[in-house]
Amino acid sequence: MFSKCVMATWFGAILVTAVCLCFSVILLSCQDNSTKVPLELISLALIIVSTITSTKIYLKQNQDKILLGSTATECKINYDLTKQRTYEIVAHELRVPLQIIVSYLGLLRLNNISISRQSSAYEKIDKAVARINSVVDTMLFLASDSQPEFKSEDITIVIEEAVKQIKGLTDNLFVVKRNLDKPVFLDINEPIFTSFLYNILSNAIKYSSTDKPITLGIEQVKTSIIIRISDQGIGIPESELKYLFSPFFRASNAKKIKGTGLGLVVAKKSVEMHSGELSVSSTLGVGTTFTASFPFVV
Prior knowledge:
The chain has 298 residues and is α+β, with helices and mostly antiparallel strands. It folds into 2 domains: 4-143, no CATH class; 151-295, 2-Layer Sandwich (Heat Shock Protein 90). Helices cover 53% and strands 15% of the residues. The protein is built from 8 helices and 7 strands. Strands 2-4-5-7-6 form a 5-stranded mixed beta sheet. A two-stranded antiparallel ribbon has the order 1-3. A hairpin with a 3-residue loop joins strand 6 (277-283) and strand 7. The longest helix has 37 residues, at 72-108. Residues 31-37 and 49-70 have low confidence and may be disordered.
């Protein structure tokens, strides 16, 4: 588990770099007065500026809480160890989509561009902005200490609805196994709980072929509710399993597959916010199983 001072270092560096890159794109796009800067890009830059300001205020007001349990020396060591990696991550996760935006803004400057190519360019710009938003939103979630509201929900219904929604986005096969004698109700925050399901299921889809089923099982073991999600995908090297829930980590055999390295971090935090535990087992070339355990009062 990474300390709050490390997360603050990542978060601040990413936001500062993001706003610099956003304004660089805007300035580049304004070199030709005939080019209209997409409103979404300007809005994104303003949102990041606002977020940086509010984050700086929060860190200043809560610096004692953030450093609680971590000495200044530990924070300095953590900062030194992560600074270089942080900027490498920013270069990949934020500069690349912004370069895509620059490229397509250049295309849109052409006078003879067809309507279909214009539409395609705007679609690519929208996707690039959405990717940047996704990274920023994820970091906001990971940096948040706010306590969500919980209410009692039939966990089987919540799981079935999540599977139903994600099935509509893929051709992968899903098998849901319920080993429950009766409905089980857990106190959950449904959006946060389903973010755990979506992230694990999305990984299973991403690293599996469509002809291999993804299995989701739910059962009660004594005073715990166990949810297992298994795929028959590429698997994860055993030596890398211990790093899997680290921010921005990508397994060595997954480098060419699109991803931010944040999905499993979000999934783990989502489970822990429900007083649960998330673990993983995997065999290279065979598949991966994620197991989430939640306390349940009989």
